[in-house]
Amino acid sequence: MQNADDGVGRCPEAMSHEAVSKTQEQFDDLVAQAEACRRLAVRVEPYSPEEAEALLLRAKNLEVTALGLLKHLRRKHIRAA
C-alpha cells in the first residue's frame, strides 16, 4: 500500500470530518424541527384537528428524512473505516 497521504486505498465516497459534522448538524436540526411540530400539534389540536394532523404529518416526514440522512451518514462512515 502506498503512502496514506496520496489517497490510494481509500474509498472515494468516504466523507470528510467536516462533511460528517455538517450532516450531523442537519440531522439534529431535522429532529428538532420534528419535535417542534409535534409540540405545536398538541397545542393546536383542540382548535384545529386538521392543522394538528398536518403538523404531525410534517413531523413524520421530517423524521423519515432525518433517518434517511442518518443511514447515509452511517453508510459513508462505514466505507471510510
In short:
The protein is 74% helix and 0% strand.
What report would you give on this structure?
With 81 residues, this protein is mainly alpha-helical. The protein has one domain (15-80). It contains two helices and no strands. It has helices spanning 17-44, 49-80. The radius of gyration is 19 Å and the shape is elongated.
Write a concise keyword list for the protein shown above.
single chain, mainly alpha, 0% strand, 81 residues, 2 helices
Structural class: mainly alpha
Q: Enumerate how many helices there are, as a single number.
A: 2
> What is the H/E string?
HH
Number of domains: 1
User: What number is the mean pLDDT?
Assistant: 80
> How big a fraction of the residues is strand?
under 5%
Helix content: over 70%
Shape assignment = elongated
Number of strands: 0
How many strands, which pairing sense, and closed or not: the largest β-sheet? none
Rounded to the nearest angstrom, the distance between the terminal CA atoms is 16 Å
Q: Radius of gyration from the CA trace? A: 19 Å
Could you name the ranges where pLDDT drops below 50 across 5 or more consecutive residues? 1-10
